[in-house]
């Protein structure tokens, strides 16, 4: 080894290298060595970021069911009754009748796992270093990711439907091109979807939540309502919509990434619904949990389990979809 010391003429900084490196075959190798002498490794490790887990903010999740169940059933009924004018003898009294229906919510058993090799465990014990919890955290994230996928789109193999593709929720189309439409036209397009739910349910359900594809939310949040004003279409709509007009309460408007291509043919889909635990539900008898470690060959595996359903609409007319085919 022939060590050579080099001094930078401008900074006076010195570094030493093996003179044999002069025989490097490529410029990249030489530059890589030079950079390595001046590189500082940050103490923070940057994790790849993924979309937020928001399904439990959009769907009421029920964890009260027993852990052993494979499905949840519930009764619904439609009562038929009407009074009328009758004769004095009372022989023509109208009869009350009830049409009952039993519905079933499939629940699926799911899981994942993580583990450590015996070598990792020995070194951690010898060096008194706590085991890295990243694997456990990622296992939890993976289960939540799966739960969100099922909550939003269900699982066709298990007869589960999701929040964004339930076949019993009414669907219509809008031909409005939001990129060229006026602010008034966009407001009317959003508000008519809310009004549709309100009227089709005989004013029984008033949507308190409007979910917009992020591509449409961005347009509404940036487009001015009128030329020369500072009020955006979204700001105007928050104050002037059917739900706020009927109840006096602010409406919840969310930008949802997964709606960008949730419509038929991959088109953006809007959704308006009255969010409460009576109208829709997702069952979770077993929230994600890890079980005791199990020895497997030269590893300790930690199995994890959870149970979930899709999204069930008990009252499908409390919601409506609209595919926006214009953009």
Give your account of this protein's structure.
25% of the residues lie in helices and 29% in strands. It has eight helices and 15 strands. Helix 5 (183-200) packs parallel to helix 7. The chain is α+β, with helices and mostly antiparallel strands and 327 residues long. The protein folds into two domains: 3-36, no CATH class; 51-327, Major capsid protein gp5 fold (2-Layer Sandwich), CATH 3.30.2400.
Descriptive labels:
single chain, 327 residues, alpha+beta, Major capsid protein gp5 fold, 8 helices, 15 strands
Short description:
With 327 residues, this protein is of the alpha+beta class. Helix content is 25%, strand content 29%.
Assign the CATH architecture of the largest domain: 2-Layer Sandwich
Per DSSP E runs of 2 or more residues, the count of β-strands stands at: 15
The shape is flat
Number of domains: 2
Discrete helix count? 8
Helix content: 25-40%
Mean pLDDT: 86
Written as H for each helix and E for each strand, in order along the chain, the element string is: EEHHEEEHHEHEHHHEEEEEEEE
CATH topology of the largest domain: the name is Major capsid protein gp5 fold
Q: Would you identify the regions where 5 or more consecutive residues have pLDDT less than 50? A: none
Question: Tell me, what is the CATH class of the largest domain?
Answer: Alpha Beta
Strand content: 25-35%
């Amino acid at each position: 080894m022939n060590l050579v010391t080099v001094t930078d003429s401008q900074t006076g900084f010195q570094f030493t290298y093996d003179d044999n490196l002069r025989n490097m075959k490529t410029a990249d190798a030489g530059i890589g060595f030079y950079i390595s002498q001046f590189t500082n490794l940050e103490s923070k490790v940057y994790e790849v970021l993924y979309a937020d887990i928001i399904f439990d903010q959009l769907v009421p999740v029920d964890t009260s069911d027993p852990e052993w169940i494979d499905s949840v059933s519930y009764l619904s009924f439609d009562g038929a009754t009407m009074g009328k004018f009758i004769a004095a003898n009372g022989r023509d009294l109208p009869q009350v009748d009830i049409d009952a229906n039993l519905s079933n919510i499939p629940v699926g058993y799911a899981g994942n796992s993580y583990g450590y090799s015996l070598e990792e465990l020995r070194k951690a014990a010898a060096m008194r270093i706590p085991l890295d919890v990243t694997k456990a955290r990622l296992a939890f994230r993976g289960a939540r990711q799966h739960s969100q996928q099922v909550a939003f789109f269900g699982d066709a193999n298990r007869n589960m439907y999701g929040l964004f593709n339930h076949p019993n929720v009414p669907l219509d189309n809008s031909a409005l091109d939001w990129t060229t439409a006026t602010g008034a036209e966009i407001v009317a397009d959003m508000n008519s979807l809310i009004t549709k739910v309100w009227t089709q349910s005989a004013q029984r359900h008033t949507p308190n939540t409007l979910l917009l594809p992020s591509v449409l939310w961005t347009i509404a949040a940036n487009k001015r309502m009128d030329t020369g004003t500072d009020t955006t279409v979204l700001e105007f709509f928050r104050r002037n919509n059917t739900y706020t007009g009927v109840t006096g309460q602010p409406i919840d408007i969310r930008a949802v990434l997964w709606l960008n291509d949730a419509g038929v043919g991959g088109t953006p889909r809007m959704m308006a619904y009255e969010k409460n635990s009576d109208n829709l539900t997702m069952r979770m008898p077993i929230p994600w949990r890890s079980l005791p470690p199990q020895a497997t060959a030269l590893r300790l595996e930690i199995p994890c389990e959870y149970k979930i359903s899709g999204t069930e609409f008990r009252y499908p007319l409390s919601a409506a979809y609209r595919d926006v085919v214009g953009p």
